[in-house]
Amino acid sequence: MSQPDTSGDCSFSDLDELVKTLQLAVHIPTFLLGLLLNLLAIRGFSTFLKKRWPDYAATSIYMINLAVFDLLQVLSLPFKMALSPVRLPFPSLCTLVECLYFVSMYGSIFTICFISLDRFLAIQYPLLVSHLRSPRKIFGICCTIWVLVWAGSIPIYSFHGEEEILRCFHNMSNHTWKARVFLPLEVFGFLLPMGVMGFCSTRSIHILLGRRDYTQDWVQQRACIWTIAASLAVFVVSFFPVHLGFFLQFLVRNDFIMECRAKRRISLFLQLSLCFSNINCCLDVFCYYFVIKEFRMGIMAHRPSRVQLVLQDTTLTRG
Asked: What domains sit in the chain, N to C, each tagged with a CATH number?
Protein backbone atom coordinates (compact mmCIF):
# COMPACT_ATOMS: atom_id res chain seq x y z
CA MET A 1 0.00 0.00 0.00
CA SER A 2 2.83 2.32 -0.85
CA GLN A 3 2.90 5.40 -3.00
CA PRO A 4 3.18 5.11 -6.77
CA ASP A 5 6.66 4.42 -8.03
CA THR A 6 7.20 8.08 -8.77
CA SER A 7 5.62 11.25 -7.57
CA GLY A 8 7.25 14.05 -9.48
CA ASP A 9 10.94 13.70 -8.60
CA CYS A 10 10.15 11.53 -5.55
CA SER A 11 10.99 7.89 -6.35
CA PHE A 12 9.99 4.84 -4.33
CA SER A 13 11.45 2.11 -6.54
CA ASP A 14 14.51 1.55 -4.33
CA LEU A 15 12.31 1.15 -1.26
CA ASP A 16 10.14 -1.38 -3.07
CA GLU A 17 13.22 -3.43 -3.96
CA LEU A 18 14.37 -3.39 -0.33
CA VAL A 19 10.96 -4.50 0.92
CA LYS A 20 10.77 -7.20 -1.75
CA THR A 21 14.02 -8.73 -0.48
CA LEU A 22 12.87 -8.53 3.13
CA GLN A 23 9.53 -10.14 2.28
CA LEU A 24 11.31 -13.17 0.86
CA ALA A 25 13.25 -13.57 4.10
CA VAL A 26 10.18 -13.15 6.32
CA HIS A 27 7.23 -14.52 4.35
CA ILE A 28 8.71 -17.83 3.16
CA PRO A 29 9.38 -19.24 6.66
CA THR A 30 6.15 -17.64 7.89
CA PHE A 31 4.20 -19.42 5.15
CA LEU A 32 5.78 -22.84 5.72
CA LEU A 33 5.60 -22.76 9.51
CA GLY A 34 2.22 -21.05 9.67
CA LEU A 35 0.62 -23.48 7.21
CA LEU A 36 1.76 -26.52 9.15
CA LEU A 37 1.03 -25.24 12.66
CA ASN A 38 -2.38 -23.74 11.89
CA LEU A 39 -3.53 -26.94 10.20
CA LEU A 40 -2.43 -28.89 13.26
CA ALA A 41 -4.20 -26.39 15.53
CA ILE A 42 -7.46 -26.72 13.57
CA ARG A 43 -7.20 -30.49 13.77
CA GLY A 44 -6.45 -30.43 17.49
CA PHE A 45 -9.32 -28.15 18.46
CA SER A 46 -11.69 -29.97 16.10
CA THR A 47 -10.93 -33.14 18.06
CA PHE A 48 -11.90 -31.46 21.32
CA LEU A 49 -15.01 -30.00 19.72
CA LYS A 50 -16.02 -33.39 18.34
CA LYS A 51 -15.77 -34.88 21.80
CA ARG A 52 -18.09 -32.10 22.97
CA TRP A 53 -16.30 -31.81 26.29
CA PRO A 54 -18.73 -29.26 27.84
CA ASP A 55 -16.15 -27.08 29.56
CA TYR A 56 -14.08 -26.59 26.39
CA ALA A 57 -16.46 -26.58 23.41
CA ALA A 58 -16.91 -22.78 23.31
CA THR A 59 -13.18 -22.17 23.59
CA SER A 60 -12.49 -24.67 20.80
CA ILE A 61 -14.88 -22.83 18.46
CA TYR A 62 -13.11 -19.52 19.08
CA MET A 63 -9.71 -21.13 18.52
CA ILE A 64 -10.75 -22.85 15.29
CA ASN A 65 -12.12 -19.55 14.02
CA LEU A 66 -8.88 -17.72 14.82
CA ALA A 67 -6.78 -20.49 13.27
CA VAL A 68 -8.84 -20.39 10.06
CA PHE A 69 -8.31 -16.64 9.75
CA ASP A 70 -4.58 -17.12 10.34
CA LEU A 71 -4.53 -19.89 7.74
CA LEU A 72 -6.18 -17.62 5.17
CA GLN A 73 -3.56 -14.97 5.80
CA VAL A 74 -0.78 -17.54 5.46
CA LEU A 75 -2.22 -18.77 2.15
CA SER A 76 -2.39 -15.22 0.80
CA LEU A 77 1.34 -14.57 1.40
CA PRO A 78 2.75 -16.41 -1.68
CA PHE A 79 0.30 -14.56 -3.94
CA LYS A 80 1.14 -11.28 -2.22
CA MET A 81 4.85 -11.85 -2.85
CA ALA A 82 4.31 -12.98 -6.46
CA LEU A 83 1.85 -10.29 -7.53
CA SER A 84 3.15 -7.20 -5.69
CA PRO A 85 6.24 -6.65 -7.90
CA VAL A 86 4.46 -7.13 -11.25
CA ARG A 87 1.98 -5.00 -13.15
CA LEU A 88 -1.27 -6.82 -13.93
CA PRO A 89 -3.57 -5.96 -16.85
CA PHE A 90 -6.66 -7.27 -15.00
CA PRO A 91 -7.86 -6.51 -11.45
CA SER A 92 -9.83 -9.64 -10.45
CA LEU A 93 -6.94 -11.78 -9.20
CA CYS A 94 -5.38 -8.83 -7.41
CA THR A 95 -8.68 -7.97 -5.73
CA LEU A 96 -9.15 -11.57 -4.56
CA VAL A 97 -5.69 -11.69 -2.95
CA GLU A 98 -6.18 -8.30 -1.29
CA CYS A 99 -9.59 -9.43 0.03
CA LEU A 100 -8.16 -12.61 1.51
CA TYR A 101 -5.32 -10.71 3.13
CA PHE A 102 -7.37 -7.96 4.76
CA VAL A 103 -10.35 -10.19 5.63
CA SER A 104 -7.98 -12.51 7.51
CA MET A 105 -6.29 -9.60 9.28
CA TYR A 106 -9.49 -7.97 10.50
CA GLY A 107 -11.14 -11.31 11.17
CA SER A 108 -8.29 -12.10 13.56
CA ILE A 109 -8.64 -8.68 15.21
CA PHE A 110 -12.37 -9.13 15.81
CA THR A 111 -11.95 -12.72 17.01
CA ILE A 112 -9.30 -11.67 19.52
CA CYS A 113 -11.54 -8.83 20.65
CA PHE A 114 -14.44 -11.20 21.39
CA ILE A 115 -12.11 -13.68 23.11
CA SER A 116 -10.94 -10.87 25.38
CA LEU A 117 -14.52 -9.85 26.13
CA ASP A 118 -15.49 -13.46 26.79
CA ARG A 119 -12.56 -13.87 29.17
CA PHE A 120 -13.46 -10.70 31.05
CA LEU A 121 -17.04 -11.90 31.52
CA ALA A 122 -15.74 -15.27 32.78
CA ILE A 123 -13.69 -13.45 35.43
CA GLN A 124 -16.15 -10.70 36.35
CA TYR A 125 -19.40 -12.71 36.14
CA PRO A 126 -18.47 -16.40 36.56
CA LEU A 127 -22.06 -17.42 37.28
CA LEU A 128 -23.11 -16.27 33.81
CA VAL A 129 -20.35 -18.11 31.98
CA SER A 130 -22.26 -21.31 31.30
CA HIS A 131 -25.21 -19.31 29.92
CA LEU A 132 -23.30 -16.83 27.75
CA ARG A 133 -20.69 -19.27 26.48
CA SER A 134 -22.86 -21.98 24.99
CA PRO A 135 -21.37 -23.48 21.79
CA ARG A 136 -24.36 -22.30 19.75
CA LYS A 137 -23.90 -18.67 20.82
CA ILE A 138 -20.14 -18.72 20.28
CA PHE A 139 -20.68 -20.21 16.82
CA GLY A 140 -23.17 -17.43 16.08
CA ILE A 141 -20.63 -14.81 17.16
CA CYS A 142 -17.99 -16.33 14.87
CA CYS A 143 -20.43 -16.36 11.94
CA THR A 144 -21.21 -12.70 12.62
CA ILE A 145 -17.50 -11.90 12.53
CA TRP A 146 -17.22 -13.50 9.07
CA VAL A 147 -20.19 -11.49 7.80
CA LEU A 148 -18.77 -8.26 9.20
CA VAL A 149 -15.28 -8.66 7.74
CA TRP A 150 -16.55 -9.68 4.30
CA ALA A 151 -18.99 -6.77 4.29
CA GLY A 152 -16.16 -4.49 5.39
CA SER A 153 -14.05 -5.72 2.46
CA ILE A 154 -16.37 -4.07 -0.08
CA PRO A 155 -14.15 -0.95 -0.39
CA ILE A 156 -11.30 -3.22 -1.53
CA TYR A 157 -13.06 -3.66 -4.89
CA SER A 158 -12.41 0.01 -5.62
CA PHE A 159 -8.84 0.09 -4.30
CA HIS A 160 -7.35 0.62 -7.75
CA GLY A 161 -10.11 2.62 -9.43
CA GLU A 162 -10.07 2.47 -13.22
CA GLU A 163 -6.34 1.88 -13.67
CA GLU A 164 -5.53 -0.19 -16.73
CA ILE A 165 -2.23 -1.48 -15.32
CA LEU A 166 -2.05 -2.03 -11.57
CA ARG A 167 0.15 -3.50 -8.85
CA CYS A 168 -1.37 -5.42 -5.96
CA PHE A 169 -1.05 -3.66 -2.59
CA HIS A 170 0.34 -0.58 -4.37
CA ASN A 171 -1.01 2.51 -6.08
CA MET A 172 -4.34 2.59 -4.29
CA SER A 173 -6.84 4.97 -5.87
CA ASN A 174 -7.51 8.38 -4.34
CA HIS A 175 -11.04 7.22 -3.55
CA THR A 176 -9.60 4.61 -1.17
CA TRP A 177 -7.96 7.32 0.93
CA LYS A 178 -11.01 9.59 1.19
CA ALA A 179 -11.99 10.32 4.79
CA ARG A 180 -15.48 8.84 4.36
CA VAL A 181 -13.94 5.50 3.30
CA PHE A 182 -10.76 5.34 5.33
CA LEU A 183 -11.78 6.68 8.75
CA PRO A 184 -14.71 4.26 9.37
CA LEU A 185 -12.42 1.33 8.52
CA GLU A 186 -9.72 2.66 10.85
CA VAL A 187 -12.14 3.34 13.72
CA PHE A 188 -14.33 0.23 13.55
CA GLY A 189 -11.67 -2.10 12.19
CA PHE A 190 -8.96 -1.33 14.76
CA LEU A 191 -9.50 1.48 17.27
CA LEU A 192 -12.79 0.14 18.64
CA PRO A 193 -11.57 -3.49 18.99
CA MET A 194 -8.34 -2.25 20.59
CA GLY A 195 -10.37 -0.15 23.03
CA VAL A 196 -12.56 -3.13 23.95
CA MET A 197 -9.56 -5.40 24.41
CA GLY A 198 -7.70 -2.76 26.41
CA PHE A 199 -10.66 -2.23 28.75
CA CYS A 200 -11.37 -5.94 29.21
CA SER A 201 -7.71 -6.82 29.77
CA THR A 202 -7.02 -4.07 32.30
CA ARG A 203 -10.26 -4.79 34.17
CA SER A 204 -9.48 -8.50 34.25
CA ILE A 205 -6.01 -7.83 35.66
CA HIS A 206 -7.47 -5.43 38.25
CA ILE A 207 -10.05 -8.00 39.38
CA LEU A 208 -7.50 -10.80 39.67
CA LEU A 209 -5.10 -8.59 41.64
CA GLY A 210 -7.95 -7.72 44.01
CA ARG A 211 -8.47 -11.41 44.75
CA ARG A 212 -4.86 -11.97 45.75
CA ASP A 213 -5.56 -12.11 49.49
CA TYR A 214 -8.77 -14.13 49.11
CA THR A 215 -7.75 -17.06 46.94
CA GLN A 216 -5.70 -20.22 47.40
CA ASP A 217 -4.94 -20.38 43.68
CA TRP A 218 -2.76 -17.26 43.47
CA VAL A 219 -0.05 -19.03 41.48
CA GLN A 220 -2.51 -19.82 38.69
CA GLN A 221 -4.09 -16.38 38.85
CA ARG A 222 -0.68 -14.73 38.66
CA ALA A 223 0.05 -16.73 35.50
CA CYS A 224 -3.34 -15.60 34.25
CA ILE A 225 -2.40 -11.94 34.84
CA TRP A 226 0.88 -12.28 32.97
CA THR A 227 -0.89 -13.97 30.06
CA ILE A 228 -3.47 -11.18 29.81
CA ALA A 229 -0.82 -8.46 29.95
CA ALA A 230 1.40 -10.19 27.39
CA SER A 231 -1.55 -10.80 25.06
CA LEU A 232 -2.55 -7.14 25.16
CA ALA A 233 1.04 -6.04 24.53
CA VAL A 234 1.44 -8.39 21.56
CA PHE A 235 -1.87 -7.26 20.08
CA VAL A 236 -0.83 -3.60 20.24
CA VAL A 237 2.66 -4.29 18.90
CA SER A 238 1.26 -6.38 16.05
CA PHE A 239 -1.50 -4.13 14.79
CA PHE A 240 -0.85 -0.61 16.04
CA PRO A 241 2.16 0.07 13.73
CA VAL A 242 0.18 -1.12 10.69
CA HIS A 243 -2.76 1.16 11.40
CA LEU A 244 -0.48 4.04 12.31
CA GLY A 245 1.12 3.53 8.90
CA PHE A 246 -2.32 3.54 7.27
CA PHE A 247 -3.12 6.83 8.99
CA LEU A 248 0.17 8.43 7.94
CA GLN A 249 -0.40 7.29 4.36
CA PHE A 250 -3.88 8.80 4.59
CA LEU A 251 -2.22 12.13 5.44
CA VAL A 252 0.15 11.74 2.50
CA ARG A 253 -2.56 10.90 -0.02
CA ASN A 254 -4.66 13.85 1.14
CA ASP A 255 -1.71 16.27 0.77
CA PHE A 256 -1.25 16.95 4.48
CA ILE A 257 2.30 15.62 4.10
CA MET A 258 4.06 16.63 0.89
CA GLU A 259 7.80 16.52 1.60
CA CYS A 260 9.49 13.73 -0.37
CA ARG A 261 11.68 12.40 2.44
CA ALA A 262 8.66 12.10 4.75
CA LYS A 263 6.69 10.28 2.04
CA ARG A 264 9.52 7.79 1.54
CA ARG A 265 9.84 7.11 5.25
CA ILE A 266 6.11 6.61 5.64
CA SER A 267 5.99 4.26 2.66
CA LEU A 268 8.85 2.19 4.07
CA PHE A 269 7.34 2.17 7.58
CA LEU A 270 3.97 0.97 6.28
CA GLN A 271 5.40 -1.81 4.15
CA LEU A 272 7.67 -3.03 6.95
CA SER A 273 4.79 -2.98 9.43
CA LEU A 274 2.63 -5.08 7.11
CA CYS A 275 5.52 -7.47 6.54
CA PHE A 276 6.30 -8.15 10.20
CA SER A 277 2.66 -8.23 11.33
CA ASN A 278 2.25 -11.46 9.33
CA ILE A 279 4.56 -13.29 11.74
CA ASN A 280 1.67 -13.41 14.20
CA CYS A 281 0.09 -16.13 12.08
CA CYS A 282 2.80 -18.37 13.53
CA LEU A 283 2.99 -16.90 17.02
CA ASP A 284 -0.71 -17.58 17.64
CA VAL A 285 0.00 -21.27 17.40
CA PHE A 286 2.04 -21.32 20.60
CA CYS A 287 -1.04 -20.09 22.48
CA TYR A 288 -3.09 -22.83 20.87
CA TYR A 289 -0.86 -25.57 22.22
CA PHE A 290 -0.80 -24.11 25.72
CA VAL A 291 -4.60 -24.22 25.60
CA ILE A 292 -4.60 -27.83 24.39
CA LYS A 293 -2.23 -28.73 27.22
CA GLU A 294 -4.62 -27.16 29.73
CA PHE A 295 -7.54 -29.03 28.14
CA ARG A 296 -5.78 -32.35 28.59
CA MET A 297 -4.89 -31.58 32.20
CA GLY A 298 -8.52 -30.66 32.91
CA ILE A 299 -9.86 -33.81 31.26
CA MET A 300 -7.45 -35.99 33.23
CA ALA A 301 -8.56 -34.33 36.45
CA HIS A 302 -12.25 -34.71 35.44
CA ARG A 303 -13.14 -31.81 37.69
CA PRO A 304 -11.45 -28.62 36.46
CA SER A 305 -11.77 -25.73 38.88
CA ARG A 306 -13.22 -22.37 37.91
CA VAL A 307 -9.75 -20.83 38.05
CA GLN A 308 -8.49 -23.45 35.58
CA LEU A 309 -11.30 -22.60 33.18
CA VAL A 310 -10.50 -18.90 33.42
CA LEU A 311 -6.80 -19.61 32.91
CA GLN A 312 -7.55 -21.61 29.78
CA ASP A 313 -9.51 -18.71 28.34
CA THR A 314 -6.80 -16.22 29.22
CA THR A 315 -4.31 -18.04 27.01
CA LEU A 316 -6.39 -17.46 23.90
CA THR A 317 -5.18 -14.12 22.55
CA ARG A 318 -2.32 -13.31 20.06
CA GLY A 319 1.07 -14.56 20.86
From this structure: 16-313 (1.20.1070.10)
